[in-house]
């Protein structure tokens, strides 16, 4: 194919950044990868090195990978972490999403607005950075060789201004993952039991804490028995849709087409979700062991771990875990000496696109295409990554599997309720006294969970809880005794989603939160289908009218319902289908716009 | 079949077509075996259709009208516009008729309150954001489904949309409805890209890319409402990989892509389809023998299309067949 590149050449630095990833050019295609699936890593390489992607750099990538430049541009311009225009090497992303708003992100932005502009640094508002338990949060990127990143959470006005001025520090400045688990050390913990107790950088320590017993067990009993135990345990997906994992595995294992792929979904971009990050930072080997078992059970020899681009520490720890596991023969060929079992894991970094957590969008993203969801059927178990049978599982789902194997499926199913077995990780954030990841059996009530987290601050009243994230829904104080099981929340017309429990007290500005949610969906829609692409825009506009008391409120509520219904009925994927859930629940359950009074009394607050 | 620009396209129940498309992609060999019949219920009628047919194929065979925009008779379904949504029993959401294959015992409703609501909203969302004045059929559908795009507020004025970054936007105030209105791109003598009319159906991208032309001059760039059809870095067409085959114009359902002649005549107010004649003939430039349909107004060729059912090119032409007809007109090129 004649690529017909624009007439721009890369700088030496850009060229070197790409060639460091792909190997020297002209290397007869024997480098680590020369396929289209190297596009996202190559874009990262340039963006990390220079801070933005120039025409010359894109040309060089296209030339190396034989990708038409219009398509590569289409891919690069899909991701929020990439810039296609000159940008300073230091970029600070300041979260102004729900939990951070409840914890003062507005003051951070105000403080930054007073800092004088310079050519070397800029700051941006960001959607949820996945550290809501330490809100308000900011993440700084410094392009270079090597690129540096630093997460600042909780950030103060002073620390964020310092960060902007002096850039990300060297080395890991973050508190231990243990600090994100208020229950750490308690005997009741299962999924979180090692966090804080185990050295996340050490395979030996992981083994000393029971690591890799489950993989041995799996190899003993064989793939079919592993799948059977997972089915008997009635494990359901924790990524949002709660699909039975055993059924998914069985369907994939039985596909004649080869090879099969495993994708561990660590994109975790649902606002208010941070449990997978805490697990990956605090117990990374558990994720790798669980992936290995899943690969064994479903006949995959290759697994991809797709992790959101805003999780630098988790990436570092997982890379280390993968390297150590390889060195010890726990990844690679003939694992644990078993001749016919080869399995390896490749990390793929996302680049700022919530939609890439959708199970088919993730395939396109890995393959080097725009992260647009595919139409189903065919389902991933039949035609997934690279068109082959693929299992996609969430991080939390996977780390349940070792527990199932060591204790047995039937034993596992004794925890929780009849239809929701096991424990669940919940992400508590917002106006609670002890935010963090909590592990409780399914069926625990919302009240019990809030009590664990210390409830709202003294002298404050609970106003609302956002359950399940932006794609979930609000519940009011009247529903505080709701048992958190799949069946109970379904009956109550809501969802547990990715385990978000975002708490708002009576200081919360409900209309402003709804505006933020609407803006999030408008920003994160991939743009493929009309109901979502335009519907999310019309939703935000109508909400703005309601909040600003423009026009007749009744008309706009009716409009929201009609648009919401079409998005739910006719969007391609879960993003568009759920984009109206939270707003609807706030209108119906919390009376957000009843009698035209902005939710909390007081003047409507508007962010311009 | 008629070019997609014009009157209702005639669709035939032709499972081979889908098969054919796939064979170009995946290299499966079409053995042409007779197909098993699948029985389903379509609007309370029990019918059977060959396995592999889509719901749309089955509807067309029965004469049931399902509106479509992004579906193209020569392209693989993209499922993007969601105009063709129908109800299928047991499905939580509506499903796209244009791509969903029929299965045994499927119960389909094409004209329920739910499908009508969805179509009305899709029309309103499109009509309020893009200029549909040259999209055939849409005015009729608007009336049929009671769509009123104006209820989202007055349209926002046009502006350049080429460099909108993903994941951020300026908060609206609700006083106007955001649109894709923007200046038309006139950067060559042959055709114009007027993306204020674009509904992002992906057809031009597919026609330019692996499904037909293999030029890959254009792709979708950006994200969400800011997604748009673009060359790399929005470079002008003459700098891109475009070979001016015009196959993208052939498939564009909205007139966002049009011959420069048509664009100019519309601007002058002289474009008048009722005075146009069409003559289908064979292109004489080379031995391939593509069919060309010459659209003439006042004895001048104003546009060239190609019949989609032609076994030679399936509606595709090259620059010569599409644009190389100045020499047959005894006049100076248009100023
Ligand atoms: C817009 C959207 C975003 C999603 N993001 C994630 C995510 O970040 N992580 C995740 O595990 N699942 C996410 N999902 C759910 C996945 O599509 C899929 O159901 C899940 O990864 C399957 O794994 P599980 O069965 O283990 O839950 C998302 C779904 C949608 C529609
Ligand atoms: S629903 Fe939204 S995110 Fe999903 S495919 Fe459609 S436009 Fe893309
Ligand atoms: S004229 Fe042909 S090559 Fe140019 S953009 Fe259209 S389809 Fe592609
Ligand atoms: S220009 Fe035409 S063919 Fe291309 S996406 Fe827009 S409406 Fe579709
Ligand atoms: S990190 Fe800010 S809301 Fe999650
Ligand atoms: S015609 Fe079916 S989705 Fe567009």
UniProtKB/TrEMBL annotation, chain A:
Residues 511-556 form the NADH-ubiquinone oxidoreductase 51kDa subunit iron-sulphur binding domain. Keywords: 4Fe-4S, Iron, Iron-sulfur, Metal-binding. It holds the Pfam family SLBB. PROSITE patterns: COMPLEX1_51K_2 (PS00645). One of its GO terms (molecular function) is 4 iron, 4 sulfur cluster binding. SMART domains: NADH_4Fe-4S (SM00928). It comes from the Bacteria. Belongs to the complex I 51 kDa subunit family. This is NAD-dependent formate dehydrogenase flavoprotein subunit. The lineage of its organism: Bacteria, Bacillati, Actinomycetota, Actinomycetes, Pseudonocardiales.
UniProtKB/TrEMBL annotation, chain B:
SUPFAM superfamilies: 2Fe-2S ferredoxin-like, 4Fe-4S ferredoxins, Formate dehydrogenase/DMSO reductase, domains 1-3. The keyword Iron applies. Residues 276-332 form the 4Fe-4S Mo/W bis-MGD-type domain. Keywords: 4Fe-4S, Iron, Iron-sulfur, Metal-binding, Repeat. InterPro entries: 2Fe-2S_ferredoxin-like_sf (IPR036010), 2Fe-2S_ferredoxin-type (IPR001041), 4Fe4S_Fe-S-bd (IPR017896), 4Fe4S_Fe_S_CS (IPR017900), Mopterin_OxRdtase_4Fe-4S_dom (IPR006963), MopterinOxRdtase_cofactor_BS (IPR027467), PSI_iron-sulfur_center (IPR050157). This is 4Fe-4S binding domain-containing protein. Residues 1-27, 158-172 have a biased composition (Basic and acidic residues). Residues 36-114 form the 2Fe-2S ferredoxin-type domain. Residues 233-262 form the 4Fe-4S ferredoxin-type domain. Pfam families: Fer2_4, Fer4_7, Molybdop_Fe4S4. CDD domains: fer2. It comes from Saccharopolyspora antimicrobica. One of its GO terms (molecular function) is metal ion binding. Residues 1-28, 146-175 are annotated as: Disordered. The keyword Transmembrane helix does not apply. PANTHER family: HYDROGENASE SUBUNIT (PTHR24960:SF84), PHOTOSYSTEM I IRON-SULFUR CENTER-RELATED (PTHR24960).
């Amino acid at each position: 194919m004649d690529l017909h590149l624009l007439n721009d050449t890369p700088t030496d630095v850009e060229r070197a950044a790409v060639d460091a990833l792909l190997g020297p050019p002209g290397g007869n295609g024997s480098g680590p990868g020369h396929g289209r699936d190297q596009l996202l890593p190559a874009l990262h390489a340039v963006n990390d090195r220079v801070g933005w992607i120039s025409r010359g750099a894109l040309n060089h990538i296209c030339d190396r990978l034989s990708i038409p430049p219009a398509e590569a541009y289409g891919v690069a311009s899909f991701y929020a972490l990439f810039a296609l225009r000159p940008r300073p090497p230091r970029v600070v992303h300041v979260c102004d999403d729900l939990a951070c708003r409840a914890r003062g992100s507005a003051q951070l932005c105000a403080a930054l607005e007073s800092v004088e502009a310079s050519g070397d640094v800029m700051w941006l508002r960001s959607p949820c950075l996945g550290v809501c338990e330490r809100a308000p949060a900011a993440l700084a990127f410094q392009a270079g060789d090597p690129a540096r990143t630093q997460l600042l959470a909780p950030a103060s006005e002073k620390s964020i201004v310092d960060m902007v001025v002096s850039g990300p520090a060297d080395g890991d400045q973050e508190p231990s993952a243990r600090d994100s688990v208020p229950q750490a050390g308690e005997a009741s913990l299962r999924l979180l039991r090692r966090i804080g107790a185990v050295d996340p950088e050490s395979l030996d320590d992981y083994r000393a804490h029971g690591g890799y017993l489950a993989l041995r067990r799996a190899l003993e009993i064989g793939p079919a028995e592993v799948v059977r135990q997972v089915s008997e345990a009635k494990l359901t997906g924790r990524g949002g849709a709660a699909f039975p994992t055993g059924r998914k595995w069985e369907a994939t294992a039985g596909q004649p087409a080869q090879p099969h792929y495993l994708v561990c979904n660590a994109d975790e971009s649902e606002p208010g979700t941070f449990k997978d990050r805490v697990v990956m930072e605090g117990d990374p080997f558990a994720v790798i062991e669980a992936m290995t078992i899943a690969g064994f059970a479903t006949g995959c020899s290759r697994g991809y771990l797709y992790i959101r681009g805003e999780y630098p520490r988790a990436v570092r720890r997982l890379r280390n875990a993968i390297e150590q596991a390889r060195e010890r023969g726990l990844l690679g060929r003939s694992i644990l000496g078993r001749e016919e079992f080869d399995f390896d894991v490749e990390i793929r970094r996302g680049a700022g696109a919530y939609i890439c957590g959708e199970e088919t969008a993730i395939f396109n993203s890995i393959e080097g295409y725009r992260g647009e969801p595919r139409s189903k059927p065919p389902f991933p178990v039949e035609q997934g990554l690279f068109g082959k049978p693929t299992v996609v599982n969430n991080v939390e789902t996977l780390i349940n599997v070792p527990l199932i194997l060591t204790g047995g499926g039937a034993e596992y199913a004794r925890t929780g309720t009849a239809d929701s077995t096991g424990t669940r990780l919940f992400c508590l954030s917002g106006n609670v006294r002890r935010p963090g990841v909590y592990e409780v059996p399914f069926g625990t009530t919302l009240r019990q969970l809030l009590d664990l987290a210390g409830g709202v601050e003294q002298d404050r009243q609970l106003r609302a809880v956002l359950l399940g994230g932006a794609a979930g829904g609000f519940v009011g104080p009247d529903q505080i005794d709701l048992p958190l099981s799949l069946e109970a929340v379904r009956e109550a017309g809501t969802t547990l989603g990715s385990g978000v429990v975002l708490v708002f007290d009576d200081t919360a500005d409900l209309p402003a939160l709804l505006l933020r949610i609407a803006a999030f969906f408008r920003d994160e829609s991939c743009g493929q289908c009309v109901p979502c692409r335009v519907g999310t825009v019309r939703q935000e506009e109508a909400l703005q009218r309601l909040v600003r008391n423009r026009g007749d409120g009744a008309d706009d509520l009716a409009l929201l319902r009609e648009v919401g219904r079409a998005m739910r009925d006719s969007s391609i994927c879960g993003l568009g289908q759920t984009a109206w859930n939270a707003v609807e629940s706030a209108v119906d359950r919390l009376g957000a716009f009843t009698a035209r009074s902005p939710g909390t009394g007081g003047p409507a607050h508007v962010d311009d | 079949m008629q070019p997609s620009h014009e009157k209702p396209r005639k669709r035939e129940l032709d499972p081979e077509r889908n098969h054919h498309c796939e064979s170009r992609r995946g290299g499966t060999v079409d053995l042409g075996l007779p197909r098993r019949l699948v029985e389903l219920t379509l609007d309370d009628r029990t019918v059977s259709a060959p396995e592999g047919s889509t719901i749309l194929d089955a509807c067309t065979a029965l004469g049931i009208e399902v509106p479509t925009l992004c579906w193209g008779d020569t392209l693989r379904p993209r499922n993007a516009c969601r105009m063709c949504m129908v109800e299928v029993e047991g499905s939580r959401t509506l499903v796209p008729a244009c791509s969903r294959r029929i299965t045994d015992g499927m119960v389909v409703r094409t004209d329920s309150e739910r499908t009508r609501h969805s179509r009305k909203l899709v029309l309103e969302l499109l009509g309020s954001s893009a200029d549909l004045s040259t999209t055939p059929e849409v005015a009729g559908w608007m009336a049929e489904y009671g769509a009123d795009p104006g209820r989202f507020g007055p349209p926002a004025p046009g502006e350049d949309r080429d460099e909108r970054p993903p994941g951020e936007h300026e908060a609206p105030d609700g006083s106007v409805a955001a649109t894709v209105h923007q200046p038309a791109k006139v950067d060559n003598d042959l055709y114009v890209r007027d993306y204020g009319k674009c509904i992002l159906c992906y057809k031009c991208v597919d026609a330019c890319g692996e499904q037909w032309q293999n030029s890959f001059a254009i792709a979708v760039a950006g994200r969400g409402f800011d997604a748009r059809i673009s060359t790399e870095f929005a470079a002008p067409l003459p700098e891109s990989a475009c070979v001016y085959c015009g196959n993208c114009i052939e498939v564009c359902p909205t007139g966002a892509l049009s011959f420069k002649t048509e664009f100019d005549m519309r601007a002058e107010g002289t474009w008048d389809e009722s005075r146009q004649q069409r003559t289908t003939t064979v292109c004489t430039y080379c031995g391939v023998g593509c069919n060309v349909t010459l659209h003439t107004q006042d004895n001048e060729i104003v546009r060239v299309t190609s019949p989609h059912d032609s076994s030679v090119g399936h509606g595709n032409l090259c620059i010569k067949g599409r644009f190389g007809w100045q020499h047959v007109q005894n006049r100076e090129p248009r100023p």
